[in-house]
Amino acid sequence: MDEVVIVDYDPRWTSLFETEAVCVREVLDEGLITRIEHFGSTAVPGLAAKPIIDLLVGVRSLEEAKQVAVVQLETLGYAYWFDNPNAERMFFVKGLPPNSPRTHHIHMIESNNGLWERLLFRDYLRQHSDEAARYAELKRHLAERYPTDREAYTSSKAEYIESVMQKARQQPAS
User: Fold this and answer.
1) Contact (Cβ atoms closer than 8 angstroms) between residue 156 and residue 11
2) Residue from 144, 138, 159 nearest 47 by CA
3) What is the DSSP pairing of strand 53-59 with strand 78-80?
4) Which domains does the chain have, with CATH numbers?
5) How far is CA 79 from the centre of its chain?
6) How many Cβ atoms from other residues are within 10 Å of residue 76's Cβ?
7) Using an 8 Å Cβ cutoff, are 125 and 164 in contact?
8) How far is residue 50 from each of residues 19, 33, 104, 110, measured CA to CA in Å?
9) Is the dihedral of CA 9, 170, 141, 92 positive or negative?
10) What is the chain's pLDDT, residue by residue, as a tens digit (174 residues)?
11) pTM beyond 0.90
């Protein structure tokens, strides 16, 4: 069973991201990656989260990535979601219940993908600890409500995330 579990912030999450980003760069073809960002809740200091490191990996070409990245990332223990309904993103999971807990997700996209805008959400929460605290409270509540339904947990956060995104878009660039 793949339960939704929220834990207190772990300061090791930043170094776990940095270590994994190095490993990803080492196994993927040189020149394929344009950028790697730590995003999601583990990228916000102090924020409670599912203990899964999310890497947002920009690639020069998603078509090229589909040709080479699956086999290369399997060497690091990642499984590719072949049935992903979103054709503009490749999604990989490291650790799959019941054999082992999820530890990392890779969201692989091209530079023009709208998912990059989610970095505004990350950065807004980094700058506004009061908002991050509200988000943590919501996440804990939803994890209690949907302990075994990751999709319901995620979709129930959408309205809140969009409200924060609106604030982030209106904030002057730093």
Assistant:
1) no
2) 138
3) unpaired
4) 13-170 (3.30.460.10)
5) 15
6) 16
7) yes
8) 19, 26, 10, 26
9) negative
10) 578 999 999 999 999 999 999 999 999 988 999 999 999 999 999 999 999 999 999 999 999 999 999 999 999 999 999 988 888 999 999 998 777 889 999 999 999 998 999 999 999 999 999 999 999 999 999 999 999 999 999 999 999 999 999 999 998 766
11) yes
Residue type for 106, please? Answer: I
Nearest-5° angle of CA 55, CA 57, CA 63?
140
Can you read off the two tokens belonging to residue 94? 């490291």
User: Contact 77/94 with Cβ under 8 angstroms?
Assistant: yes
Owner of token pair 């979601």: 81
How is residue 53 written in tokens?
A: 């490191």
Q: What distance in Å separates the CA atoms of residue 139 and residue 143, rounded to the nearest whole number?
A: 6
CA neighbours closer than 13 Å in the CB half-sphere of residue 162: 6
